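Residues determine shape. Take a concrete instance:
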Amino acid sequence: MNADTPASGIRYVAIGDSFTEGVGDELPDGVVRGWADLVAAGWADSLGRPIEYANLAIRGKLVRPIVDEQLEAALALEPTHLSFNGGGNDMLRPRTSIRDITDAFEQVAARCAESGVQLILLSGANPSAQLPLGGLIGRRGDELSAAVLELLGDRAGVITALNWPDRALTHPSFWSADRLHMNARGHHRVAARVLTALEEQAPDAWWSLPVAEAAPVLARGEYFREHLAPWVRRRLTGTSSGDGRRPKFGTWVEVAPTT
């Protein structure tokens, strides 16, 4: 626990895209959970007392809309901690410069510092081994990861929980059928990394949950039809999978310890 945390306790808000919203880690009722929800639960368990948690992330968002639409709303909640990840959707657009993405990271870091909020900086995991044009995506991700590390990796007051370099997370057993979003196994491993970076106790099992029954491996045509074609259509029509969606936790919810 940060020594500067006020007596009122931990107030943790997450901003980002589908990675932070939790897409790929769907509960039986269809509600997405994801690593940020798991961090909130694990944090409360580690502390042995409730924390407050909000999650403003919206799937499909590019990094600039994340900053423009979510950052100030998150800071207005007066959190003690804010987690940020973005750029994964931008990285799939070759015309987007790495500098444009890192400028957004710099803005988040600067505003958190000005507001006295502890920034938790994440990178997403690397899905490129199983994607079309995986080589290009992998190179773009390597470049972005290196640029963010150079900018913020050693900055005082920034906690880093980096998943892109984690080679274990490239294995298909950590990914959902769309090959772009992690499944429950992947989200638990990310949550364990965040809690460890916070110097809190993560359940050992979260690092490598048992492998669930594998999703059917789709033939190339089926994969393109079910997962790639909808993405292409959204690009062509200028729409997003997050259009019209609201944050799942737009204001504080209390997360109590389970033990």
In short: Helices lie at 18-21, 35-47, 63-76, 88-91, 98-115, 134-152, 184-197, 220-237. The chain is about 40% helix and 10% strand. The beta strands are 11-15, 51-55, 81-84, 118-123, 158-162, 249-255.
